[in-house]
Amino acid sequence: MKLSHRITHLTPSGSDGWEVFYRARAMKAAGENVLELTIGEHDIRTHASILAAMNESAKGGHTGYASVPGTPELRKAVADRIQSRTGVATVPENILITPGGQAALFAAHNAVCDEGDTALYIDPYYATYPGTIRGVGAIPKAIPAFPENGFQPRADDIARHAQGATSLLINTPNNPTGAVYSKATLSAIADTCKTHDLWLISDEVYDTQLWDGTHISPRALPDMANRTLVIGSMSKSHAMTGSRVGWVCGPQDAIEHLVNLATHTTYGVPGYIQDAAHFALGQGTPLEDEIAAPFARRRQITEALLATQNIVKASPTQGAMYAMLDIRATGLSGLDFANDLLDAHGIATMPGESFGQAAAGHIRVAMTIADEDYAAALKTLLGFANDKAA
């Protein structure tokens, strides 16, 4: 039987660029000692108090169908959080609760893209972006953001690709690069969206992991609230990756249609998980700061170790839990460097090429293991790069 073109061409090459990660996992499963600096998974688990709230809700009976748009309490908590952080008036009717940020990305593109529309995104990109766009029947088109510009997308490059497009997807603080888009960058993006009548989809799941600069939600820029869909999630801010709870924030009419989409797809998020998320948001910034603190420390470790040598260079690590390292001085591609490092030292990293072509010759390091182990792994990586460059 024939499967649909849409499902079989989510990743047309048959690869999602993560071969090094899969190989490292296979080695680990076979009993080999592998240090994983690959995916954005916290090395601490969900806070015990959040799990207690989840357990209390489940035991209390909130295990049946929950309200599809999200519980009133959680929608209000998310709306209040967004309004407090951005200054933009936000009400529960601006919020749809989703099964994680990925479901929110899929829903947002469904809301604004018809079959055959062109949907723009920035390269380097989170690995699911082009497949998400293909999944709604749109045509993904990458706009490169170059290391020489700190991986900030340039206004001229965006404008050159915007003609005839329907939407633009951005991510700041950025995975994989760690860049935080400046006000000038975001203002240029906003101007382009207004000039070319684009929807802006803003992935802001790393908004609590900010080390340098200021996070600006483009929804807060002049005349942008009516054309911006913001993606949020509890995964990174509260170490709730497995709980699968996120949201879309946007104009009320768009959210009404997205509620209808959710009714026909996910049918909402379990109530006890929503109650746990509501509890977690109620703990305010102290808990968010506690979750972010290990990555702030490891960013300092990264900068200190990089300063001891001159082979590997780093793009500004302004936010998120990653460092994008330039290893072009070794003469290797990111893919070859990552494979060789894994074979030689059992350290798994992500090739820059896994996230598009603009980060070719780079590797992404996830700062997601204990400080001492992270420092040791990074020292080994830097020594390996020095040997390759000799």
Descriptive terms for the model:
Aspartate Aminotransferase, domain 2, four-stranded antiparallel sheet, seven-stranded mixed sheet, transaminase activity, 390 residues, NHTrfase_class1_PyrdxlP-BS, alpha/beta, 13 strands, Aminotransferase, Aspartate Aminotransferase, domain 1, single chain, pyridoxal phosphate, globular, aminotransferase
Structure report:
The strands form three sheets. A seven-stranded mixed β-sheet has the order 2-8-7-6-5-3-4, with helices on both faces. The model has no long low-confidence stretch (mean pLDDT 96). It contains 13 helices and 13 strands. The chain has two domains: 5-45 and 286-389, Alpha-Beta Complex (Aspartate Aminotransferase, domain 1); 64-283, 3-Layer(aba) Sandwich (Aspartate Aminotransferase, domain 2), CATH 3.40.640. It starts with a helix and ends with a helix. Helix 11 (284-306) packs parallel to helix 13 (371-389). Strand 3 (118-123), helix 6 (129-135) and strand 4 form a beta-alpha-beta unit. The radius of gyration is 21 Å and the shape is globular. The protein is α/β, with parallel strands linked by helices.
Brief sketch in words of this structure:
The chain has 13 helices and 13 strands. It is an alpha/beta fold.
